[in-house]
Specification:
The chain is of the alpha/beta class. It folds into 2 domains: 188 residues, 2-Layer Sandwich (Ribosomal Protein S5, domain 2), CATH 3.30.230; 309 residues, Rossmann fold. It contains 23 helices and 18 strands. The strands form 6 sheets. The protein has a 5-stranded parallel sheet. Strand 8, helix 6 and strand 9 form a beta-alpha-beta unit. The protein is elongated, with a radius of gyration of 28 Å. It starts with a strand and ends in a 7-residue tail after the last helix.
Length: 526
């Protein structure tokens, strides 16, 4: 007998349609799997047939051939177990036509099957159910049968019926009993809008002093600019970075789905939270490898730049990252995506993140306080020189921490809360939304093309003359020139101005103080 069951697989961050075919016929008894399968997918034959036996079902000794198409695409993971099981049961006669209810025929004809099998016949959750279910919906499938633990996640996809099962016995009941398929989705796995109760996000009101860095953070978030915080150790750089997600506007529904897909593929989706609603904050260690940051491995998985999409990628102690890792950020910062070329094809991962980096001024962290800093000028130059000019040019704002006065620490008055700052940021977002409504993919000031920069950041009169003097005196590159104009545009939006004034232009230039000190000819370490 022959049976064909629909299923789906993963390629990068996208799901693709697949079919599991099974043929049970005469010949030397055995199981043969074909279809460009990874080792863990090939091992499904042991899981499937052991689970069938431990579930009280009996198969006759037959030659069983199983193929998962398309054969030209590599199939990886254990999510094909359930489709293989269903195809084998149908091809072996255990699911006989006379015993299958009308609902069961609908399942075989227009439903897909995803899930991993345990040896006892239980169904275990798998990675990437959300993007695979979305691919099945776009492919015209009516519904999908998934492990009970994946049902809430799969139910996030609209216009497709999700059925959750715990084991082979429940799967068999679907084919033999009449009734509504919707009854198979318990209330606990229906679509839920409830957020997981978690700890309160860190608030900007906790920070005393460092008004300059807080201002830089607000400007960076308002225009989605990349930010580098420098200064002595313990000056509050990390505290400010960890509070930045709290002043970013809420994720839209579409952004929540996109982010949830990434975390589902990587197996990082919390069991009690099928939909991620908070902007991510990822802080990889400086010893992280290049594949860990950009993505890669076998199978190919997204890296930290993708997991921080729609949120913040925080690189603390930036100069301590390996040089090739830092330099590899050039293209993602410009293109907002990562392209990895492998033998099996080209993988594209999103990199729509806000970079927030932090660094000290010297290896010991105390420079320029020469009473405590014992680093030599050569050590300081070598440490600071790990940040190349091309990387600094891709960071819009380079702000340096200033000493905090004791009065700011001992005062009882708290600073502005994250909620207040977020309210101002949302107003600037609305201005940008209106400005770029006819500009294609551009959404924020930091994403403006050179043509859009010339259009929306036009300078006139004394402001243009001031920009000319700054450009010539500092020897700005064209990229840095555009960066300054985009930051100035954000500052003008924050001030409610239609045009860019001299005040906004000068502040935009001052927000690159650290780069000036490194590459403007001034070597304070001498």
């Amino acid at each position: 007998m022959f049976a064909k069951i629909r299923c789906a697989g993963l390629f990068g961050v996208q799901g693709f349609l697949a079919e599991t075919e099974a043929d049970s016929g005469t010949g030397l008894p055995g199981v043969y799997l074909t279809g460009a399968l990874s080792p863990e997918t090939k091992e499904a034959q042991y899981r499937v047939f052991t689970a069938i036996r431990n579930s009280g079902l009996s198969l006759k000794p037959r030659k069983v051939t199983i193929n998962i198409s398309p054969a030209g695409r590599k199939k990886e993971g254990t999510g094909f177990d359930l489709s293989i099981l269903t195809a084998v049961l149908a091809a072996s006669g255990i699911l006989e036509e006379k015993e299958i209810s009308e609902r069961g025929r609908t399942l075989l004809a227009s439903f897909a099957f995803l899930g991993e099998l345990g040896l006892d016949g239980s169904l275990k959750p798998v990675r990437g159910v959300l993007p695979m279910t979305d691919a099945l919906r776009r492919g015209g499938m009516k519904g999908v049968v998934v492990p009970y633990g994946n049902a809430r996640e799969a139910a996030l996809v609209p216009d497709i019926l999700v059925v959750g099962v715990r084991n082979i016995q429940e799967l068999m009941e679907l084919f033999t009993r009449e009734g509504s398929l919707a009854m198979r989705v318990p209330e606990a796995v229906q679509k839920s809008e409830e957020d997981r109760e978690g700890e309160k996000l860190p608030d900007f009101s906790d920070i005393r002093g460092q008004a300059y860095l807080k201002r830089a953070a607000e400007v960076a978030v308002s225009g989605r600019h990349n930010l580098l915080l420098s200064g002595a150790a313990g000056s509050g750089k990390t505290m400010i970075a960890r509070r930045i997600p709290g002043i970013m506007p809420e994720l839209t529904r579409e952004e929540q789905i996109q982010l949830t897909k990434l975390y589902s593929i990587c197996g990082l989706l919390p069991e009690d939270q099928p939909l991620l609603k908070r902007r991510p904050f990822r802080a990889p260690h400086h010893a992280s490898s290049l594949p860990a940051l950009l993505g890669g491995g076998n199978p190919v998985r997204p890296g930290e730049v993708s997991l921080s999409a729609k949120g913040v990628l925080f690189l603390d102690e930036l100069p301590l990252f390996r040089r090739e890792v830092i330099e590899a950020l050039r293209e993602p910062l410009e293109e907002r995506r990562v392209l990895l070329t492998r033998l099996r094809g080209v993988y594209e991962f999103p990199a729509d993140f806000s970079l927030v980096a932090a660094c000290n001024n010297c290896p010991c962290g105390f420079y320029p306080d020469r009473k405590r800093c014992r680093c030599t000028p050569a050590q300081i130059r070598m440490y600071q020189g790990r940040l190349s000019k091309p990387i600094l040019e891709r960071i819009d704002i380079c702000a340096e921490a200033r000493p905090v006065e004791y009065g700011a620490l001992s005062g009882e008055r708290a600073g502005e809360s994250s909620q207040v700052i977020r309210g101002r940021v949302e107003q600037v977002y609305e201005i940008q939304k209106h400005r770029f409504r006819d500009c294609g993919s551009t959404r924020y000031n930091s994403e403006m093309t050179p043509e859009e920069t010339e259009r929306f950041c036009r300078l006139t009169g004394e402001t243009e003359e001031l920009m000319r003097r700054i450009y010539e005196k500092k020897g700005l590159s064209l990229r840095t020139y555009h960066k300054v104009l985009r930051v100035a545009r954000t500052l003008a939006d924050m001030a409610g101005r239609e045009d860019i004034g001299q005040e906004q232009l000068l502040e935009a230039v001052s927000l690159r103080s650290f780069e000036d000190r490194l590459w403007g000819g001034e070597r304070n370490a001498e």
